Predict the structure.
Amino acid sequence: MNIPPEVAQRRGRIQFLALAALFFGPVGVAFWMYYGGHLIPSHRVNHGELIQPTVTLPAVPTLLTADGSPVGETFLRRQWTLVYFTGDHCDDTCRHDLADLKKVRLAMDHERDRVHRVVLGHAPCCTSAEVGPADPDLTAAYVDSEAGRRLLAAFPPTGQNLVGSGVIYVVDPLGNLVMRFPPDAERKGLIKDLDKLLRLSHIG
């Protein structure tokens, strides 16, 4: 059966348009959804508060533990650090929170060695009797010194107001404040944010 030239031409045009829609249609839909605002999430991707602009903590020497040993100026470097603030002593709430942070670290599974915990408080805070048995992934130091006050001043908005509040900060291996979590923050959210940071980062 012979097909008239005009019919064959019309069929060819239809087939071309169908193929074009097949390949370029999804792209057009994606552009429409993105620029039309349909792909913008209605909720935050992260659970903690991002620190913006970036704050780099000073490398402070001679901070001491409760037994008088120096912690060294790199204790907030080289690893991802969960910094917890307490007051004059580590009470039941403090011990509970530190145990939670230990679980957060263990939840990182094979990446847990990249994570360290630090508790900061006023002297005479955080003796081994208060925070529990010796724990290699926990550094407890007090900030009742000139160097300690200089460190606290770097935490926004004012470090002195944060001590004793149970606020948790995430510090990257270069000493930059990355995120902040309030005392009542869900640990599942902290786990998700920290896991994402570890997966995206090749440092520490």
